[in-house]
Amino acid sequence: MPVSNAALRHDADAMALDEIEVTGEPERLYSNFICGITALPVRLGAA
Hints:
By secondary structure, the chain is of the alpha+beta class. It has one domain. Helix content is 28%, strand content 38%. Strand 2 (27-29) and strand 3 form a beta hairpin.
């Protein structure tokens, strides 16, 4: 699948969601080089 089609499909899927709720604590990545979130539990609600 071309990248442009994948991007459009992602946008369409994102528009179909009307609710995103965080359901748990984020799992953080601790490193001297980079830091960020490795996992974030969520609940998705359809439109």
